[in-house]
Amino acid sequence: MNKLEYLIKTFSRTKRKDYENYILNAIWQKINCLNIRPVTQQYVKGDNNEYYLIDLYFPQINVGVEVDEAFHKKNTESDLKRELTIEEKLSSIREDSLFELKRIDATLPLRKLTERIETVSAEIKEKIVDKKITEWDTDVSIKERIKKKEYISVDDFYRFRLITDVANQLFFKNYKGYQQASFLVTIDDELTHVWFPTISTKAKEEHSQWLNYLNEDWSVITEENIREDGKTVDHELGDLRVVFAKIKDNFGKFSYRYIGNFRLKEISEDNKLRRYRKVSDRLYINYEKKKLLMKKTLKPHLDTSRRTVT
């Protein structure tokens, strides 16, 4: 999808909301920068695992814009109670990741509304200059972006279309194609699975062999074996997994998002339930030495005895 097609599809998502459509398009025109990529109808993960929707988001500078219409003000509570799909939750950004939200009151008189649009647009332009945004982010490979930062984080807006994209851009592989749900790498001299689970819910159980449930704060993954043949695969307590969850984007296309590093903490007696707990939100990647590191990890006590999953 080229830039023009992307922009048309992105801003057409607001066309049924007259005030929102007018304000967002005015902001986009006043910013006048074709190197900054807009995202409309973006979910944000707030405190207490609540989610809310903002009208416009710029992932390269982590700034969002919310248009407060009279209709929105009356329906805020009902909007927050909406049941999100797992894809919408996993596509969200975290409110606590230095995210900045700018609000525009659509009920202002025209002159004041215009002034507010001018102010917000100027502030966004200033951010673009400060961050030295010179390229549309999807024009630069994720590998090149991570090379500059030296790590990938759950707060990054990176989406990988294929498992091979993850393997080749992050983990020094050279796969032509890959059909398995995981592959092995070494992190801090420890053999580790890079895992690509499809996340299940009680209303959406897509897999025929294993179901993977993620809790609300993305800190625990529970695997449940539902194979009819009764076969299981043995794993050791403490095993490390780097997890990329499968999600659906705003245009209905599937991709993978990094959600953290997890260790196997609990195994049921029959080996049909396994529980992984998050130990880190970042993975450090040294491309020059082809080394993977997990710095600044949480260090809970690792109980090496077998625990029962309830």
Strand content: 25-35%
The H/E string reads HHEEEHHHEEHHEHEEEEEEEEEE
- Helix/strand/pairing category: alpha+beta
Can you give the helix content as a percent range? Answer: 10-25%
Tally of extended strands?
16
Low-confidence stretches: 297-308
Strand order of the largest sheet: 7-8-12-13-14-11-10-9
Give the CA-based shape.
Answer: globular
Q: What separation lies between the terminal Cα atoms?
A: 46 Å
Q: What's the Cα radius of gyration?
A: 21 Å
Main sheet overview: 8 strands, mixed
How many distinct folded domains? Answer: 2
Oligomeric state, counting identical vs distinct chains: single chain
User: What is the count of DSSP helices, taking H or I runs of 4+ residues?
Assistant: 8
What is the typical, i.e. mean, pLDDT? Answer: 86
